[in-house]
Specification:
Layout lengths: L7 E7 L3 H9 L3 E8 L2 E9 L3 H17 L14
Antiparallel strand pairs: 1-3, 2-3
Length: 82
């Protein structure tokens, strides 16, 4: 039986700072391409997508922290979603 294929997530970012790029890296994104035009660069990233079990665990964790009014234990990357 063949191993399941892992899906990828993709992210396109323009006009970033070093702080933004550090956050992207901490969120697990890898730079895979750059295009330039109009005086600015567009960066393309990818990272392995979460499988079903990982997505459920993450959603449960976020709900518990939200319900308790606690800050997340790591920097959220909601703005870094594809």
């Amino acid at each position: 039986m063949a191993a399941p294929t892992r899906a990828w997530e993709y992210l396109r970012v323009s006009g970033t700072t070093e702080t933004d790029l550090a956050a992207v890296g901490r969120a697990g994104w890898d730079l895979v391409g750059v295009t330039t035009g109009g005086g600015s660069a567009t960066l393309y990233f990818k990272r392995p997508g979460l499988d079903f079990r990982e997505r459920v665990a993450l959603e449960q964790q976020l709900r518990v922290y939200d319900r308790l009014g606690l800050p997340l234990p790591h920097a959220p990357d909601a703005d870094l979603q594809p």
